[in-house]
Each structure stands twice: as structure tokens, then as C-alpha cells.
Amino acid sequence: MLSLIVKMLFLGFSSCRLCPLGPALLFVKAGQGSEGGRRFYACSACRDRKDCNFFQWEDEKVSETRLAAREEYNRNHQPPFTHWQNVERYKNFVLLPLSKRRFCQECQQLLLPAEWEKHSDHQFLCAISAAQLRSPSQLLYPLENKKTNAQYLFADRSCQFLLDLIIGLGFRRVLSVGTPRLHEMIQSKASQGEDFRVRSLLLDIDFRYSQFYTEDEFCHYNMFNHYFFGGEAARETCRKFLYQDNDERVIMVTDPPFGGLVEALASSFKKLMAMWNETEEEGHNSQEMPMFWIFPYFFESRILEFFPSFSMMDYQVDYDNHALYKHGKTGRRQSPVRIFTNLTPSMIVLPVEEGYRFCAICQRYISSGNQHCEICDSCTSKDGRRWKHCVLCKKCVKPSWFHCNNCNCCALQNHTCEKTDAGCFVCGKAGHKRSTCPSLFHTRTACQADKKQRQKTPKRVKMAFSERSAMKHALFFRKKVKKKKKKM
């Protein structure tokens, strides 16, 4: 039963089942206590059916009518202009005088004079400067839907650090996957200075950036299913960019939505790495493309599951448009976002002026609060605070955790023990939760039946009341007629 679902597992994707965001992903719904469940296809990027309603059971036979309706739906949800058309529009836009450069804030679109009347009732910005065109991430509204886009943008501090680090490591080409702020910084510096040799290619699901970048600078790309919306032409653009010519080393920098499935992301990143390997000379196929994966530290085990060669750096990445992930905060309020990389940790030099220091034993830079544990033989802190070693758990834990003898592990002091005898809140039995309680299902069914019964009862009462009223009115009318006859 779907009401007993407790988890979803990503199994792959289908190239023949398409939604507006490309091939759908294959999932399985597993119920409580069951080894497997029914498989289904759903949108790769949207976790909420309100954003994309694509859903199909794996063994479901779809009618021709439904397929035609789906194709029509996909066509209606495509951008109004192609990438090539947006590039041509941009060329015409930059030729306009400053007074005629307008940007529609509602449609998020650069406007040509012939389109002003159509957008006359919309809010728009005037006198769009060349500096604004070089920084589209500041001109466009961030897409902050946590279940779809979660478009949080690097703060200048983090963006500048990443760029300085990339240059210092000797990389000259940056494959920017979902990092528009880093891409535009590289593009802006490249347009201003002749000595700046770094190039960038942006792969992003946000098609609005096609208004500002050519086909060689931007590819419309879905990182959850490795889908290039521009087809083979866009794929070839990416392949050519990954080709290391004249010793121009390539690195991939990615900043995926934190709510995205790590399995799907890892699958796409491995395919990008495979594209890089195809362009490499023979003998280098065993190497991995250098990569910075920017993600919260609590996903470390999941990332290492798919990329065992990766290690996590202590650098705290902060964002402009995120209320919590800011630099300078202390304690538990520090940004949890870190850099995962397959490069040698000692090569990643972190800024000393921010308190980072080098641990000679671990051979890597660590945060000021991260202390080396002689028992674990490692700098164990993940969140920037000093962790403490638990002898019973045989590992370091957060400073706010204490060892619980019931759970036989460390946890918060006011936590609920996992090994308690307390069962379901509805029936009291162990093995399931309130949301999947069979008794709750029967109770809901009984309540619904009772509700329908109550809804029907007033109608019968009302009908009976109306019949009685009609009878009384008829009797009253007859008495009135009889009185009139007597008077006559």
C-alpha cells in the first residue's frame, strides 16, 4: 500500500520517459518490513508533484492519447526562445543606447523596444549597464525552491577564494556545474584583462542564463539525469571544452541543490568524468577528473560511498542569499557547507587570516577549532567546533553529545532512546510508526464513513422538515378557505 511507504530508492533513468526537465528517474517505493516495492518513474529535478506532475509506474501501459497529451504538455513548458535566438537578441540588446535597455522583472527577460508595449503593465529595470550584463546572477531573481532549484549563490568571499585556489593549482579551464556566480566572475575577469587565461563553461538547469552567454559559454543541463537540453550539439561543446589543449588543465566545480539525491548526482558526475577521460590521451584513463563538490558536511558518508578517493576540506562556504549559511558565525550557527575533492588535501591551502592552520600530522589545513585527536590520530571536527573523544564509542563526537547506555552510543542529552519499549502512538505496538499504523488506517476509514453518514442525515432531516412544513401550510390554507366560506 502507498500509505505504508517509508523510503524511496533511486535505480536509474529512462531516456524514453520524458518530462519538461528531461528523462525521468526510476525509483522504488519500499514499505515497512518489505524487501522491495513497486517501481515508478518521476521527474529527476522536482521532488514536489506541484512543480512537475510526471508520474508513471514502470509496468504501466500508457495509451496513445496520454502520450500525445504528455508531448503537448512538454512542448508548452519549453522556454519561449531557443538559445540561438537569445544570443541574437543579446547582440541587438547591447547595440541599444543605455536609455533603451530594459529588463522585465516579472518575465525575467531582456526587452527589445518592439516588446515594450507587451510588457507595459510589468515591472522592469531601465538603463541596464554593461556591468549588470556581466553579472546576470545579480540581475535575475534566484530560484529558491528547496525541492527543485535551491539556487543559493556564492558570497564574494567564497567565490574569490575558489577562483584564487583554482588559479594557484594551475587549472585554466573550469567546468562550472550549477555555479553561475563563479562562472560570471571568470567571464568578467576574462573580458577585462588580457593576462587572465582562465576559461569557464557553465552547465546549469536555469535557462535564463542563455540570454547572457553564447553556446560556447553556457549549456542548458540537468545534473540529476545528465541531460543536455541542446542535444548532441551541446554535448559536443562540453566534450571540446574538456579536451586539454596546450596543457590547459581542467577542473569541475559543482554546487548542487542540497535536497538533491546524491545517487543521481554521483551518476551524472561520473558520466562527465567519463567524457573527460574520452578526451584524454591513452594511459590517463585510470585517472579521475579533478573536482570540487560543494555540499554540507553531513553528506560526507554518502559522497564517499560513490567517490572513495574524495576527502572533505574544513573551508566553510557561505552564500549571499541564504539566511543561515553565512561567514563569521560561531558555534552551531556556522555554515555546514564544505568542499569535497579528489585532489591531495595538502594542496588545498586555506586562508590563514581566517584562522585556518596546517596540521603537520594530517597533512591538511584545518579550522581553528579543529583539534588533532591522538587516539583517533586525526583532526575529527566536521562543524568547526572542537569535538571530544568518547572512549566507549571509540571515536570523537560533537561537544553537545553524551554517551547513552540505553542506545550504546553518543547523542544529545534530551534525545529519545532508540531502544526504548515505546511503540506506535496509536496502537502501542512496536515495528511501525503512527503514520503507517494499520489501526490508524481503519480508524480513518471508519471516520470517513461516519462523516458521510452525518452529511447525509441533515439532508433527510431537512426533507422531513420541508414535508411537515408543506403539510402544515396545506392544513392552514384549508382552514382559511373554510372560514371564508362560512362568512359568505
Tell me about this structure.
- This protein has 488 residues and is of the alpha+beta class.
- Helix content is 30%, strand content 21%.
- The protein has helices at 64-76, 83-94, 130-134, 136-139, 156-168, 180-192, 231-242, 262-279, 300-306, 438-487, and strands at 5-19, 22-31, 39-42, 55-57, 102-104, 109-111, 124-126, 171-177, 199-204, 218-222, 227-228, 249-254, 291-296, 311-312, 337-341, 357-359, 364-366, 372-373, 378-379, 388-390, 395-397, 401-404, 409-412.
- The chain has an 8-stranded mixed sheet with strand order 11-10-9-8-12-13-15-14, sandwiched between helices.
- Helix 5 (156-168) crosses helix 6.
- It is globular and about 75 Å long.
- Residues 1-8 and 459-465 have low confidence and may be disordered.
